[in-house]
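Hello,

Following up on my earlier ticket. Below are the two sequence lines again, exactly as submitted.
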Amino acid sequence: MSEKFIGTPRKVTTHVNQNEDLIFEKSSAGKKGYRLAQLDVPTVDAASLLGDAVRTDNLGVMPELSEIEIIRHFTRLSTWNYAIDLGMYPLGSCTMKYNPRINEMVSRIEGLAEAHPYQPESLSQGALGIMKLLSECLIEITGMDAITLQPAAGAHGEFTGILCVRAYHTANGNPRKKIIVPDSAHGTNPATAAVCGYQVANLKSNALGMVDLEELERMVDEDTAALMLTNPSTIGVFESEIHKIADILHAKGALLYMDGANMNALCGKTRPGDFGVDVMHLNLHKTFSTPHGGGGPGSGPVAVKKILEPFLPTPIVKTNADGSLGLDYNRPQTVGRVRAWYGNFGMFIRALAYILANGPDGLRQTTEDAVLNANYIRSQLEGTFELPYKTRSLHEVVFSDKLQAKNGVKTGDMGKRLIDYGFHAYTVSFPLVVQGAMMIEPTESESREELDLLVDALKQIAREAEENPELVQNAPHTTRLQRLDETTAARKPILRWKAPVAATQLTPDTAAKEW
Amino acid sequence: MRYLPKSPADRTEMLEAIGVASIEDLFETIPAEYRLTEDLKIPRQHGESEVLDRFRAFAGNIASGDPAKLASAPASKLYASFLGAGAYRHYKPVIIDSLVQRGEFLTSYTPYQPEIAQGTLQAMFEFQTMVCELTGMEIANASMYDGSTGAAESVMMAVRVTGRNAAVVARTVHPEYREVLKTTTQHQGIPATEVGYDAATGRVDLKALDAAITDDTACVLIQSPNFFGTIEDVAAIAEIAHKKGALLIVSIAEAVSLGIVKAPVEADIVSLEAQSFGVSVGYGGPYCGVIACKEKFLRQMPGRLVGETKDKNGKRGFVLTLSTREQHIRREKATSNICTNQALVALMVTIFLTVYGKQGLKELAEQNLAKAVYLRGALKAAGASTKFEGTPSFHEFVLTSKEAAEALNAKLLGKQIIGGLALSKWYPELGENATLWCATELTTKVQMDAAAAVVGAK
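Thanks for your patience. The regenerated structure is below:
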């Protein structure tokens, strides 16, 4: 490395690195990691029972290993991941908060984990009770009137919500033609509008990064089905004129859809239902602490006002005349089913456990701490990095790389350098309305000490960008792997492992070694 | 609040550092009229032991979750269950939960920073490879929400690939999958024609299928083993579809069948529900869908993909790739609006497949087959009859009992047995007495004999 400036932030250390082959390269014929229970019925001859349908190949590359080897393989792989449990994950718009372990434990209680979705309702009262209580809590938190828990993730919730919008307009005469999406929106919003058969009309943000009311008023007409708005916006700012936005839409019969991705800024402090929102989705894997798990599973309930309730997916939980709970499939105006059964039930358990652990006071304190943390980071780093929008931040703050870019150091480089200092990168280059965006969402889960470590690291990086830009441009330096060639990966895709020599059992000598 | 790492002094000092007098100042952009002035009306803050008690009560089937009621109610009973129908109870090796609860897997984000996400990325690459091997396809994505949404996405993918606009769907595909397909495609101008089944075999009616396919048919969607547990003649269906230029999509709801049932190699796209591979039935989710297909359809496949590459020092590594198909780049022109996948569940599947491996998957499937053969025999001996005899099936079959499903299941429930799934709701032609029964390696002879005794009781 260069002899120029190298920072020494307090969190910096060396990552633990272990090399580990692919599972297929570690396999040896005849090893076993299982033993089935003894069969208590007569054996059968599959070939004679299945005829031509019987499988005759030997399952080619499927691995054969013992239990300890399997444990070591996946444990070693796990050590290559960064995680919330290791430190701060300042990914803006992702809400990487602590995932409480009690959530995991209660989701695995046998009576819940082993409940079959078609078991009789009389045996499902507890499962339905969870869905009912969670629904009631989420309706209260959002200030809406009704909810479906069925959507499997946020984007799936958007899809469901916009289907309800479409069904509503159709019931009122015609489905209308377009959905307005601000240019600051997440890419799922326009993609959702398109799969629901709508044209997408892009709304430019004003100089403050907010909805331009005059422009909106000009765009909204009798063909407008809805505006899909993220509030707080993707720059972490509350749309203070939200009620005017709702009024403009409602005057033309259009609806206000709220992307609830940033609900962690509002929970317990204000309710979308009170400020004019007609339909919104929640991300249980953001605001309500269900784990991201490397990219899923999520859960994306959709809450609506009374006017949209008839259109919610089927079934929904109902209370029978005798007070017991049941599933209501008799919903003539429903948009239909968006997923088999009732949704990602395991995530409902976790989200409800989180809500119970917090209570109303805990949820409010959580939101306040999340906003406090973001504003603290903003106060400590303003000046070090350019702050393109000066409006008061809520749960996240968006800087830009403008000051560093003049030395050739971009937001992506600084994000990678943060990895060397023991953090995950912030969100890079999003939202698109900010050139060179650096989007930081600390969440409530960070102590002041951890925030100071991040501030310390980012200040060092800013200094490096001045004095030793190539150090930042080539980061990360301390990881097991350095920057990966994504261009070749896309141009010549290798999407599965293939044995290097066909039909030859691999040994450590014949396996393709890269280390 | 125990999850919040702040002392009161921290909060005061941080407000000072920010330069505001109170926390309310930070919320000044929210108009005062919309700011809550009282507590949300939700249950009060619970201690950890109280949370646990409450969920134990829910698990004990107390709708209110009130643990006091659990104490006075009879202890929750263990029921033998013969339900399958897309949600299958198989043994889940203990190490799956040990490994997926490692914080490094559980609490990591989508691997957008590959240098510090190689664990998830390599495991997903292994997942893709195993799915290809099992399904006989050339490529597989790193998971979809579940089998129902995966099947719908496969149909939309076939429309993009062929430039045709219609779908032909077998009535033997899971009824809820068909409902999801209808909801998903309703505003995209993709009419779906349903094709019935042969009353004798329970398989797709090939003549009706041939007649239903037109020049505008993008794909034929079937399920095998189908909803009745019968294995479809995939090769014959593929020939009919391909002759008319349509793609064949095979949906597989019971992944364990792949250990003993021939892979649907004649298909163009396979939509797999991998729940059976180590994922709890869990009242319907989360599960794990996957789309696998021929390599030539790569650019039209939705969902995340992990690809192999090298780092700048030439070391092998893995990255998310071909994201130019996805919504965060393509916005309204994306192949799908899907963003989140089922990464942690896909990891569970990968570990399950590693535990059973090449020999275990076959042995496991054989045990399932043997149990179903025994169950079928026992119920027939008790006086019921089964449909679609003589057609190959895996571990599910349709039973016609002497009494209506509702009456039979009530009797079984009295003996702590959950009987087969009543079918008349979706297949009225099968009558009120038709139920779908499933046996897996976890179904014991004692349970099957007990069920047969109830079925045979006068």
